[in-house]
Design goal:
There is one protein chain. With 163 residues, this protein is of the alpha+beta class. Helix content is 39%, strand content 27%. The protein is built from four helices and seven strands, in the order H-E-H-H-E-E-E-E-E-E-H. The strands form two sheets. Strands 1-2-3-4 form a four-stranded antiparallel β-sheet. A three-stranded antiparallel β-sheet has the order 5-6-7, covered by helices on one side. A hairpin with a 2-residue loop joins strand 3 and strand 4. The longest helix has 25 residues. The mean pLDDT is 84.
């Protein structure tokens, strides 16, 4: 399907596309919520396992660290799944709504938020930056928005105008 045919199916009549982007998270200390947790868990599990074995185990128990190392892979695989999800995500902004796309093989899921749900954007200090500009469903305090936006200087003027 061509880009034009895709947008013809997604956009409403007389709706124009202001901005299109995708998340591009980078390995950076500011992205600790994405990358830091699995690293901290892996180091803690391995360190704890090593300490317990060094204090209570014998030399032949060192193979138990293999189980600890496998347990450390759980948070790493969770981050890997999150990165895969970001790779399949696309964002779009029109003068009427914010669109979130998740591309999964041959299927594309679209979630749309009307501009009435938008609030002034709040930047989260990540690299590249994340912007929350939609009030979360259920009245939660956390804002939903576009994450890890490279070239956010093109997005901000549109967000300020629509919100």
């Amino acid at each position: 399907m061509s880009d034009g045919a895709f947008w013809d199916n997604v956009l409403e009549q007389d709706e124009s596309l202001l901005w299109v982007g995708r998340p591009k998270p980078r390995l950076h200390w500011r992205n600790w919520q994405l990358f830091g947790v699995p690293i901290a868990c892996a180091v803690t599990l391995l360190g704890t396992g090593w300490f317990i074995l060094s204090q209570l185990g014998t030399g032949s128990d060192i193979w138990l660290l293999v189980f600890v190392a496998l347990a450390a892979l759980v948070p790493v695989s969770t981050t890997r799944k999150q990165l895969k999800s970001y790779a399949a995500t696309r964002y779009a902004l029109t003068e009427r709504r914010a669109l979130f796309f998740h591309i999964d093989n041959d299927k594309t899921r679209v979630k749309s938020y009307p501009s009435a749900a938008m609030v002034p954007p709040q930047r989260r200090n990540t690299t590249p930056p994340c912007f929350g500009f939609l009030q979360a469903e259920g009245g939660k305090q956390r804002l939903v928005g576009f994450d890890y936006i490279d070239g956010s200087e093109q997005l901000l003027p549109h967000l300020a105008r629509v919100a």
